Amino acid sequence: MRNKIIYFIRSKLLPDSLFLINGKRESKSLYLTFDDGPVQGVTEELLELLAQHKVKATFFIIGSRISKSSDLLKKIHQQKHTIANHSYSHPNFTKLSSETMLEQIITTNELIRATTQQCCRLFRAPQGRWSIRLLFKLFRLKMTAVHWSRDSMDFLKEQPEKIVKRFIDEPVKNGDIILFHDDNSRCIEALKTLIPHWHSQGFSLNALENK
Ligand SMILES: [Zn+2]
Q1: Catalytic residue among 86, 154, 181, 183
Q2: Which of 25, 29, 85, 209 has the highest Cβ tally under 10 A?
Q3: How many angstroms separate the alpha carbon of residue 151 from the centre of ligand 1?
Q4: What is the Å distance from ligand 1's center to 39 Cα?
Q5: Is 35 a catalytic residue?
Q6: CATH number of the domain residue 103 falls in
């Protein structure tokens, strides 16, 4: 509850360019976001599913995974999804010194740039643990903090049907930024049902703009 209040206050007081929780509520768009990849054997299958449905998404990648998965990162980029920064090693940012915070963000930006020749402007803190200190750092780096307005709760390791049911019981709203994880295939199984379901309701599924 406390977190919800903090996020609400931040989303109302800070501009979207600094702290983004949802897209425009006027347009019938949804934003799928995938954290913690890229992971061999999972992310490829997810990319195939997204291509099959002509859906674009945003991947918040962990920098330390890039050396083993640079081909996968290039593929995400080539398929015109947005690549975003989810730190180098997924630490709890509220416990880091300012120097280490910067190192985590900048090293990952540099790895993304070296692999895809693209600047990265979006950052999501591991587990959504934000602090004013971190937001200030991102502001100085001209980056946007991106949270989410809907959580698939796929981290609970439940059956994919439960993830689907959650979105049927409480439908998505225009502009929702939806959190998934592509470090396991549960989200893929759930999205095989959810993507056609959302399309049939007239939603378009887009990548967040990297600017
Ligand atoms: Zn994460």
Answers
A1: 181
A2: 85
A3: 12
A4: 13
A5: yes
A6: 3.20.20.370
What range defines the domain where residue 181 resides? 30-205
What is the token pair recorded at 54? Answer: 């002509």
pLDDT recorded at residue 69: 95
200 CA distance to ligand 1 middle (Å): 30
Tell how far the Cα of 37 is from the centroid of ligand 1, in angstroms.
Answer: 9
Helices (H), the chain: 2-13, 43-52, 70-78, 98-116, 132-140, 160-169, 186-200
**110 or 12, greater pLDDT:** 110
pLDDT for position 10: 67
Which of 4, 1, 65, 6 shows the shortest CA–CA distance to 34?
65
Average pLDDT, the chain: 94
Condensed to tens digits (0 to 9), the pLDDT of residues 74-86 reads 999 999 999 999 9
Residue 181 falls in the annotated catalytic set? yes
pLDDT higher than threshold 90 for residue 6? no
User: 168 CA to middle of ligand 1, Å?
Assistant: 25
Of the residues 35, 36, 154, 183, only one is catalytic, namely 35
Domain count, the chain: 1
pLDDT, average across residues 24-28:
93
